[in-house]
Design goal:
The protein is of the alpha+beta class. The protein has one domain. It contains five helices and ten strands. The strands form four sheets. It has a four-stranded antiparallel sheet with strand order 3-4-5-6, with helices on one face. Strand 7 and strand 8 form a beta hairpin. It is globular, with a radius of gyration of 23 Å. The chain starts with 8 loop residues before the first helix and ends with a strand.
């Protein structure tokens, strides 16, 4: 009499249990490889999403640098208050700056949004290039927004366009290897806290593109080690209120006679 061979219920359960264990082991590694997020909240320097972020920042930095060099070593980078010819520095906000960069084809809206951004950020799919009208004093799409409290069409912080840092660094001839122009958003004053969407599980890490065009991965705000005449330079705090020559990355909400108002999330 021939015996029948098949799968027993116990065998199937054991197989399923083994698959669950293997998936539990593999998923964190897959998550880290894709998103860059480690189980402890730190960010892996090499990941699919991190690679996209690096390319976005590098493309932005190199586009600005190439345009500047094309105009000579003393050429200034694009600036809203210069673009419309008014020299009105109150126009140099984050929303206007990035909208101007899109209008002048330095970048496109899709490249300004980081994959996996945890803030109120979304791509501006309706950017209107037809609004450009020098006759009417319109040099960028005013509907582009960068408000971290409500909605932003851009993920990346930038050097505030105020103070001596503009003349010193926002130009082709600067080429500084330790002065940041654009980068990942960070917590206010560089204090890592879980209250900030930029610090998953209370830890910050990100990428920064410097004035010479290179991009670095920083695993904490303290990894930025630039020093200046007033001591260590905090990447996410204004250390030189009087002169405005220090390095800082943030969102510029407004600029007036009293200075710049930065925004954090």
């Amino acid at each position: 009499m021939r015996s029948r061979r098949g799968y027993s219920l116990i065998g199937l359960l054991i197989t399923l249990a083994c698959m669950v264990v293997l998936m539990a082991i593999a998923l964190p590694a897959m998550r880290s490889a894709t998103t860059g997020m480690n189980p402890d909240g730190s960010q892996a320097p090499n990941s699919a999403w991190g690679g996209v972020e690096m390319m976005q920042l590098q493309a932005l930095g190199q586009a600005v640098l190439a345009q500047g060099l094309g105009g000579g070593m003393d050429s200034m980078y694009p600036r809203p208050s210069d673009a419309n010819g008014t020299k009105d520095r109150t126009l140099d906000t984050t929303a206007n700056l990035y909208s101007l960069l899109v209008m002048e084809r330095f970048t496109v809206p899709k490249q300004l949004v980081r994959k996996g951004d945890r803030g109120y950020v979304e791509i501006d799919d309706d950017y209107d290039w037809t609004t450009y009208s020098p006759r009417n004093g319109v040099y960028w799409d005013p509907s582009f927004v960068a408000d971290l409290d409500v909605l932003s069409n851009v993920s990346y912080a930038h050097m505030p366009l105020t103070g001596r840092r503009v003349d010193n660094q926002w130009r082709a001839g600067a080429m500084s290897s330790d002065f940041p122009l654009f980068g990942s958003r960070g917590p206010r004053d560089g204090v890592e806290t879980a209250d900030s969407v930029t610090c998953p599980m209370g830890k910050w890490s990100g990428r920064v593109v410097f004035a010479d065009g290179h991009v670095d991965f920083l695993d904490s705000p303290r990894a930025f080690s630039r020093r200046s005449r007033f001591g260590p330079d905090n990447l996410f705090a204004i250390d030189d209120e009087a002169g405005g020559s220090d390095a800082i990355l943030g969102f510029t909400e407004s600029i007036d006679e009293d200075g710049v108002t930065l925004q954090w999330d």
